[in-house]
Amino acid sequence: MRRAAIPALAGALAVLLTACSPGLTIFSNYRSLENLELVRTVTADTAREGVHVTICSTAGEKSDARMYGRVGPSIGVALGELIHLPLGREAILSHTENLLIGEAYVKEGLAQCLDYMERFSEMRLDTGILIVRGGTAKDLVEGLTGGETPAPDAIAGLGRIAARIGRGYFFTCRQIAASLAENGCALAMSVRGEKADKLFEDRGELDIEPAGFAVLRPGEDPVFLSDEETWGALMLLGLFRSRNVDLPVGDTVLTVSVDKAGASYTPRFDGQGLAGVDIALTAQANVICMEGDGDLKDPAYREKAEKALEEALRQAAGAALDRSRVLQVDFLDLAGIVRRKAPLKFEGVADKWGEIFPELPLTVTVKAELTRTFDIVDPPAVSKGEEAKSPWEKLTDSLRDS
Amino acid sequence: MIKNKQPEVSQEAPVTAAAMEAVFSDCYDFESRELNIGGNPGNTVRLCFIDGLVSGSDVAEQVIRPLTDPGRFGANVRGEQAAAMLLGGSVYVYTSKCRRKLGEAVEDLLNGFCALIFDSQGEAVTFEVKSQQRRSVDAPKEEKVVKGAKDAFVETLKVNTTLVRRKLRNPHLKIREFTLGERARSAVALVYIDGFTNPDLVAEAGRRISAIRAEGVLTSAVIEENIVDNYRSPFPQTISTERSDKFCLNILEGRVGILADGLPLGFLAPGTFSQFMKVPEDHSGHFLVASALTILRYLSAVLTLLAPAFYVAVAMYHQEMIPTRLMQSMIESRSSVPFPTAAEVILMLLAFELLQEAGIRLPSPIGETVSIIGALIVGQSAVEARVVSPVVVVVIALAGIAGYTMPNQDMGSALRLCRFLLVLAAIFLGMFGVATGCAILVYHLAGLESYGVPYMSPFAGSEGRHLSRALLRRSMAVKRDREPELHTGRGGEAKL
Known about the structure:
In chain A, helix 7 (227-237) crosses helix 8 (299-327) and helix 9 packs across helix 10 (343-350). Chain A is globular. Chain A has 402 residues and is of the alpha/beta class. In chain A, strand 10 and strand 11 (252-270) form a beta hairpin. Chain A has two domains: 34-224, no CATH class; 227-384, 2-Layer Sandwich (GMP Synthetase, Chain A, domain 3), CATH 3.30.300.210. Helices cover 38% and strands 30% of the residues of chain A. In chain A, strands 1, 2, 3, 4, 5, 6, 7, 8 and 9 form a nine-stranded mixed sheet that branches. Chain A has a four-stranded mixed sheet with strand order 10-11-12-13, sandwiched between helices. By secondary structure, chain B is of the alpha+beta class. Chain B is 45% helix and 12% strand. Chain B contains 15 helices and twelve strands. The relative contact order of chain B is 0.09. The A-B interface holds A 2, 5, 9, 13, 16-17, 20-21, 24-26, 29-34, 36, 38, 40, 58-63, 92, 94-95, 97, 122, 124 and B 315-317, 319-320, 324-325, 327-332, 334-335, 337, 340-341, 427-430, 432, 436, 440, 443, 447.
């Protein structure tokens, strides 16, 4: 049995290798590592002939970022021509981290960009898509290039920090494409270039900063959400990480860091169908700064502070919900949430969701809690001249007393 | 022209001094002298022995002195009567044999006996007076012992069997002797526990040892390559060890052991892949630590086998698999290297093998120096001179170091060989080549058998039920499972 199997395996292997070799061997797929330029950022802007595409690449860790641009009838054609760089170098697109699309190009080019990224196997589906607000993507990246921090690193840095400061979230190509397919709309993070502060010498001419979410719809210009609406959307979508909020409490201003905030949804149905959705927001925050003379150990003051925080959260969430309904675009995916909560009942309202959604009664309840900081019984700053004692000394004193 | 002339020895011929001298003609270490029995000049016997194999003082004190003592052997004691007295204990040697066939007497002489030949009767009385000049039992040189017995096998079979017997004080421990080699006539012993070790395994091992056709058993390959199922496979199928404790441990697990005179090694069969990943220290250390180290060894085997091939495939064909930061670093380091990735890796692998070979062949202190110089200075210089990129040095060094964790040198060598082949497959076919190479390797390993036991058991061939046994060691406080593939006796027949 084994004697027969070995020649059979060898034969099958020979056939397999012969058949696959032309497609797999050094004659086609081989790329010399030293000749590669790593593309990390791609931009797409509208142009008279179609699309203007630029790539921002680096040849190594220490080399400066280089930009190459090409105009083509489509992003695929332009990128295909850009791959072959001067001096025999080759651009590799598999490490593209972000695709920046100019605001003007979104209307006509978004679908094309997504289609290209989904079909071209070298591009990753988790490439972030950013909309450049109030300018072209090329100008933004060019403005970023020139400082010590390469443009791709500056963009990647923003991606890491945007969610942590509660000002945005880097949605990937896959998430945007899925949302467009499912809801007919999607959120994407928008960015804008600001003149770089001269204090930051490692920057180029521009610095990049978040500019709220952009609501994308096929064939339409993007609609940009305000900062508060973006914050509210982050909480309602469960993407919130952290944000500092100033709260007016009486005569004082309390700055708190909201570290946890999430929403839970409860759809209400009656005989007529969907009667509304109850949205319960819960949040936790801790005090990081106080202006004025407030007593954090006073329960009444603390309660006031928590009420102020709840109000701020309610406003943010309400703003996002209102904008969604005004635009008549369900970018918060309420339909999906109701469907997941009550799939059978949702079937009855699925067809007329577009009509129901703008008038749907939404109740937002908020429960916020301030934790930490004020629980410190003896803060170092209020020792009032007494000699500070270590915990060990306090323990021995108390034992002696007892 | 020198004509090779083989003395013709008739095995069945009567034992005479002339015949014996004819057999050992042109042998300068062969000694023959006439002795007077009881000091009587008219009553002589011929003493023959091979100098060096026997202890001269023992011959003089235990044989010649009592034999020539007139008080012990009177003037009338002759021929047949003298032989009977010798066999009856008139000399002080604990082993004596009466030989009437020349072949038997010659065999005895070659085994450290001396012979008193009675020409008139055509017979000889032989006495065991072996020389004690042998290497003393010492700590193992190749298989380091951290926490365990430090008596390693030596080149003398009797000493080795004694080491085993001391550890396994059981009358059911059988040591069956075979004489192998047309010319060298080497002694080989088959060790097993009667009533416990699978009798089919014992019979098969005996059959294979008997079937060995060789001039002599002077190297381990003579035994290993003759008793394994598939001698073409580079993977070891018998466990060879210089440690007597490991040898005994495996005998207790139901394997058969083979010891050969002249080789400071013991061989154990059947050998399975999982056995080559274990060291005796696993039974000395804490079971959790031992289990973790066993898993680490398996990971090392994968690393040493696949790391260079994986690097080649990824660097040449599948750059999208490399994280961005690493990719940038690789492009940076590769940009100044004149050789393509494939040549660079092959070059480094060869350099690594050269260093290793040089380290082994040179005397110990110099060998270590060469390894250190090679690793540190040559590697560093090669990177600084931009002959190779640092990433390749790291990958090859990592693969090499992982290979050193293999408890068995033969297994390590087999993996090194496969590593080269996988690198070649990766060069030509990328990840597809690596996957194909691995598939062929698994096919080969899964098809191997050692004495009816699947080589990859318990990973294959035992329905995976005892998978944990290969990776984990249970506490000694818990009753140990026997290996089902070895079909050991269940009734405790071998217990005393």
